[in-house]
Amino acid sequence: MAAPRPATNKIIQFKLVLLGEAAVGKSSLVLRFVKGEFKDHQESTIGAAFLTQTVCLDDVTVKFEIWDTAGQERYHSLAPMYYRGAQAAVVVYDIQCPDTFSRAQAWVKELRQQANQDIVIALAGNKADLAAKREIETEEAEVYAKENNLLFMETSAKTALNVNDLFLQIAKKLPKKDSQSGAASNVNLGESSNQKKPCCGSN
């Protein structure tokens, strides 16, 4: 949880969006960051979910307005409504699933082409607690992140590994201007329907 902020600390809010294939653990990362909790069976997000959390730096408190988007392909067309105007994005993949890493790279390319020019993008290799089953080597992701000027960490929503630090590093990279708008457009979150079976677990 966020530490109490000094009374003199100004608050700057930023819109942050999470993107990635279904079942890579986006919702679990947000739940761990916002509430310090983990659920073994996290329900699939329908459309998107909205949460807020603050990160305290030395001279400012960063308030994240977080949009956790659904990973199913049928919701892809909604994604621009969530990342439009976002100052930061976390693109998540599952270290066990090569397809999710390829999809993460596609999201990065889309953000570079269509999102804010100065958006801060972090790449999160999630489910690091299952490293024995990994199919994406850390070095491969590190090279990709460096080539594309991304923040990179391997995370585990289950054990909390690097989760808070990921958002802290994003907060440090964001410009600390006096005026930042984290307002999001009103969006239709879509209707619930049967979820496709994920390629891996849901943590």
From TrEMBL:
SMART domains: RAB (SM00175), RAN (SM00176), RAS (SM00173), RHO (SM00174). This is Uncharacterized protein. PROSITE patterns: RAB, RAS, RHO. The keyword Transmembrane does not apply. Residues 178-203 are annotated as: Disordered. Keywords: Nucleotide-binding. One of its GO terms (molecular function) is GTPase activity. InterPro entries: P-loop_NTPase, Small_GTP-bd, Small_GTPase. CDD domains: Rab5_related (cd01860). The keyword DNA repair does not apply. It comes from Oikopleura dioica. The lineage of its organism: Eukaryota, Metazoa, Chordata, Tunicata, Appendicularia. NCBIfam families: small_GTP. Residues 180-203 have a biased composition (Polar residues). Belongs to the small GTPase superfamily. Rab family.
